[in-house]
Amino acid sequence: MRLRSLSLRSILRCAIICSVLAARWPIAYAQGQDRAPQYFQSDIQYGAQIFASQCTSCHGENGDMVPGVNFRAGQFKRVLSDNDLRLTITNGVPGTAMQPFTFGASELTGLVSYLRNMNSFSARGLMVGDPAHGRALFEGAGNCASCHAVNGKGPRVAPDLGDIGALRTAELIHRTLLDPAASMLPSNRPVRAVTRDGKVINGRRLNEDTYTVQLIDEQERLLSLSKADLREFTVLKSTPMPSYKDKFSSQELADLEAYLLSLRGVK
Amino acid sequence: MNPRLRAPCLLLFLVSLIPFSLCAQVTNDRLLHASDEPQNWLTYSGSYASQRYSTLQQISASNVKNLELKWVFQVQSLQKFETTPLVVDGVMYLTQSPNDVVALDAKTGRAFWIYHYATSPASRPCCGIVNRGVAILGDTLFMATVDAHLVAIDAKNGHALWNVKLAEAAAGYAMTMAPLVVKDKVIVGVAGGEFGVRGFIAAFEARTGKEAWRFDTIPKPGEPGHESWRGGDWEHGSAAVWVTGSYDPELNLTYWGTGNPGPDWNPEQRPGDNLYSDSAVALDPDTGKLKWYYQFTPGDPYDYDSVQIPVLVNANWNGAPRKLMLWGNRNGFFYVLDRGTGKFLAGRPFVKVNWASGIDANGRPIITPQPPGVPTFPGIQGGTNWYSPSYSPRTGLFYLSTWENYATIFSGVNADYKEGQRYTGGANASPIPGADNPAGQRQGPVNTYTEALARGAVVALNPETGKQEWKFDMHDVNTSGILTTASDLLFVGGREGYFQSLDARTGALLWKQNLGGEIIAGPMTYQVDGKQYVCIASGNGLFAFALRE
Question: 0.80 exceeded by the pTM?
Answer without folding.
Answer: yes
